[in-house]
Structures are given as structure tokens and as C-alpha cells.
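Section 5: illustrative case.
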């Protein structure tokens, strides 16, 4: 079945990356169906996407561990491909409640693949993470870099799912699967209508910076100032969430080439430190962002960033938006929506 023969099921479609993907999918003429268990999101994001695009999106509050619920969605809609964003993703929580993480991410994905197979749907895009590379043997990470030395259960769930997908493709030739390894998504849709809306305290750097800028939080805690990096703070590859979302459109096109299993990094290849991100955001919002350097966070790596050249070569995808775009769009979203979707 070609990807264009039916609609795309977007698991985790109410989440940060998922909701931005909905916009680019609809803009590219795809029909979508959303499944989300709302464990770290609300359907406010999907409502906004419908308002922005003038299109209605069938939306299901369903947990992937509820296989019957997933089957019902496949029975109701002609699904031709799946983009699987849904995942628990808080690194710290995954250390505290590993069984919950393994059940949700692994069992959820296996159920989804089972139901896909029952319905003859073999086009699959998986949201993986740069975290699967673990301790860098060299940088930038390319797709050939060894994987599996992850430092936490969250990372291992991504790695194990990658292994499952590889075994599945080797055993059953019908499958076309693209694994996308995300680096650090940041920013928001340039309209300011959708953005990252974490429930509770944000774990990631950029939403923390934005909440300090709006006065919601007092200061940014810089987690480590003594790394072996130019300014002592952690260095990452931040990419605009709309660029990241667009990568999925290119991946869908690739699936239609009957590509078997492919793996691509989605990053910019440009490393930035925590202090550089704070300075860039200060410039955008015109305010001082107070910060305090504290202890390192357990399991954090000093530096990692992508070699994104394979995605450029094979998917014709390249991150186009700059650090300034990320900061401006995040600031617009945060100032227009200080209470997220509420
Ligand atoms: C970035 C940098 C921190 C918070 C994690 C996952 C990854 C991906 C994104 C899923 C680091 C520093 C952070 C803060 C800080 N997946 N920092 N103060 O850890 O690179 O990646 O999230 O969602 O798989 O591992 O992202 O944004 O947490 O941290 O100084 O309050 O900012 O130490 O150097 P990370 P991050």
C-alpha cells in the first residue's frame, strides 16, 4: 500500500513534536488521524491545529497498551502509514519507574506493530533519539556510530525499539521503516499558535529558559559548569521543531520508494552551549535571564551533535531555521500563551 492510499496515523499527535507534524502533514495534503493517551499533553494542541488549518482531525484518547482500542481505530479508518511519536520521555522518571517506561514504550510499540500487520499496513516512521548513541566514540555522531550504551531506561527503550524494528524488517520483507534520531527540538510554530506545553515542571532546557523570561520561574538552573567544553556548560544540537516536523514529510516520501529499514539523524550539525542558548534568548526577548550554575545532572553527556549529511543526501532534508528563529518562535508562543493551551 502506498502512503498516499489512506491516512497517516499520528501517535502522540497531541504532543510537542506530534502537533507540529500535524500542521506540516496537512499542509502537504496528507489526511491524519491522531491517537494520544494525553499523559503529557492535552487535545488543546489538536484543536489549535484544526483552527490553523481549517481541517478536522479524527482524534482518539487511546493508550497503545490498550490493543483493542488501537484495533478499533484501524477498523474505523483506512490507514496507510504510521508516524509513532507517542512515548514517555522524561529521563529522570525513567530511572525511578523503569517498568512503567518499558511497558509503555515497548509494549505500546509492539501492540501498534501487531495491529498494523493485522491490517496490512507496513509503512512506519519511528521517533528515536540521539540518546541511543550514548558516550561518543567520536563526534559528530553519524548513523554508523555504535548504539546501545544508553545511560538510562528511557534511552534503552528507544534503543530496544530500534532493535525490534531491525529484526522485524529482516524477517518480514513487507515492512518499510524509517528510524529518525532526533537531536534537541526547540522553538515553536512561527504563528505562535502551537508550541511546547509540558505538564508540570519542564525537564528540558528551552522551556525552562522561556518560563524564566515570562517570570513564571525565577532562574535557569544551569546543570553543570565544569564540563570539558568551551564555556564549561553542556553542548547540544538544537533544531527547530518545524524543521524536525518537515523531516517526517521527506521520510514518508522515502517509504514509498519501498526503502526497507533506514535510519537518519535529524539535527543541524551546529553545537551550542547552555550559556549560548541563554544569551541567544536574552537577545530575542530583550530581558536579562537570571541563571545559576549548579551540580551536573546524572547521566548527562558534555557534548553531542549530529552529522546530518545522510538525511540531506537521501531524504533531501536539511534544517533551515536558525537559532534566532528558534528563540523568536519560542518567545512568541510563550508570550502569547503563558498558560499553554489553558
Ligand atoms: C540540554 C542541555 C543539560 C535543563 C533529552 C533526552 C533526549 C531528548 C531531549 C526527548 C544539557 C542542560 C537542561 C535545565 C540545563 N529526548 N540543562 N538546565 O538532556 O540533551 O536530551 O531531551 O525528549 O533524548 O536525553 O536535553 O534540554 O534536558 O538538556 O542546564 O534546566 O541543557 O544539562 O546540557 P538533553 P535537555
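Designed sequence:
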Amino acid at each position: 500500500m502506498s502512503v498516499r492510499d489512506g491516512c497517516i496515523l499520528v501517535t502522540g499527535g497531541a504532543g510537542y513534536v506530534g502537533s507540529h507534524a500535524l500542521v506540516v502533514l496537512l499542509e502537504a495534503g496528507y489526511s491524519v488521524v491522531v491517537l494520544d493517551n494525553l499523559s503529557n499533553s492535552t487535545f488543546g494542541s489538536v484543536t489549535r491545529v484544526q483552527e490553523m488549518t481549517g481541517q478536522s482531525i479524527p482524534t482518539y484518547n487511546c493508550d497503545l497498551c490498550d490493543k483493542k482500542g488501537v484495533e478499533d481505530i484501524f477498523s474505523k479508518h483506512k490507514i496507510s502509514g504510521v508516524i509513532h511519536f507517542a512515548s514517555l520521555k522524561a529521563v529522570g522518571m525513567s530511572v525511578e519507574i523503569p517498568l512503567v517506561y518499558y511497558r509503555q514504550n515497548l509494549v505500546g510499540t509492539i501492540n501498534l506493530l501487531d495491529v498494523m500487520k493485522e491490517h496490512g499496513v507496513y509503512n512506519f516512521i519511528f521517533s528515536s533519539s540521539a540518546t541511543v548513541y550514548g558516550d561518543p566514540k567520536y563526534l559528530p555522531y553519524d548513523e554508523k556510530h555504535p548504539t546501545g550504551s544508553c545511560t538510562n531506561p528511557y534511552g534503552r527503550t528507544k534503543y530496544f525499539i530500534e532493535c525490534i524494528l531491525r529484526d522485524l524488517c529482516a524477517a518480514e520483507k513487507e515492512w518499510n521503516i524509517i528510524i529518525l534520531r532526533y537531536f534537541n527540538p526547540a522553538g515553536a510554530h512561527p504563528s505562535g499558535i502551537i508550541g511546547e506545553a509540558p505538564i508540570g515542571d519542564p525537564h528540558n532546557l528551552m522551556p525552562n529558559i522561556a518560563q524564566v523570561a515570562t517570570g513564571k520561574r525565577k532562574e535557569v538552573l544551569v546543570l553543570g559548569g565544569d564540563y570539558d567544553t568551551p564555556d564549561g556548560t553542556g553542548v547540544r544540537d538544537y533544531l527547530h521543531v518545524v524543521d524536525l516536523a518537515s523531516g517526517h514529510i521527506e521520510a514518508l516520501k522515502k517509504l514509498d520508494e519501498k526503502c526497507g529499514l533506514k535510519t537518519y539523524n535529524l539535527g543541524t550539525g551546529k553545537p551550542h552551549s547552555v550559556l549560548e542558548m541563554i544569551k541567544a534568548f536574552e537577545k530575542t526577548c530583550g530581558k536579562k535571564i537570571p541563571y545559576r550554575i549548579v551540580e551536573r545532572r546524572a547521566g548527562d553527556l558534555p557534548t553531542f551533535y549530529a552529522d546530518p549529511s545522510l538525511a540531506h543526501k537521501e531524504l533531501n532534508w536539511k534544517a533551515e531555521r536558525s537559532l534566532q528563529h528558534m528563540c523568536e518562535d519560542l518567545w512568541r508562543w510563550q508570550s502569547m500563551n503563558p498558560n499553554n493551551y489553558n
